[in-house]
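sorry for the late reply, my laptop died twice this morning and i had to redo everyting from scratch. anyway the thing you sent over, i finally got around to it. pasting the sequence first so we're on the same page, its 245 residues, then the predicted structure underneath. double check i copied it right bc i was rushing
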Amino acid sequence: MSATKLPGPEGHQKLGPLAARSPVLRAEPATAVVVQEKVLAEIAHELGNFFHKLYYWSDYLKEKPARKSADSTAVQMLERTIKNLEDFLKLSLDYFHPTQLSFTRMGVGELLQGFLVQVRAQLNGTPITVSDDDVWRREDAEVLIDPGHLSRAFEVAVRHLTKQVGPESSVAIGIERSARRDRAGLEVGFQLRQPNEASPLFRTAEAGIEWAVAQKVVALHGGELLERNEGPEAKSLVIFLPLCP
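ok and here's the structure:
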């Protein structure tokens, strides 16, 4: 049996937070998350995969003590699996553990400027069009956010798009004033045209723990992070954040 047939899962990419400002931060009490059954199912499934790999490489090392080159590969894969399991457990803890947020007011224009820089960096080379209804140019429009937590949630959302991007893909970003539960807010919509059909993105995103953590963070801001499957020709994501009164 070849030691290269069962590679470990890919590690999570990490990105720095949005540019931090220096106004007074307002700490909010830690808020518990409503546990979703689909997320529990995803965690159980992934843990099963991790332990399968751990047992596989452990047994392989016990059975092949004389093959030094193979042992070296197996040890590396075992170490990689352990590291990925550690990262996965930390991410799962982020989902279950109450989150402490430190809010600060930020102008919508400043928020979007940083966000679009992040989007273009992650979608480097993909044609992008941006349309808006001038909401971000309103000087009095502000949002109440935790820059670090929200930046990581944004990064996860955009990375979902990058995993769907194919050679013929393009991304349209729409920015508009919207409302949820009678509360005015900022809505940023992404429409990915001609997605890469080989990507498993939108099958795993629904129950993925990383996606669940991002949704949790946006929800703690009073907003929503949604995905929509519009058939084989288009996929879309929507981020909504309430505006300050």
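The helical segments are 37-63, 68-96, 108-122, 147-162, 201-204, 209-220.
thats about all i looked at so far, will dig more tmrw
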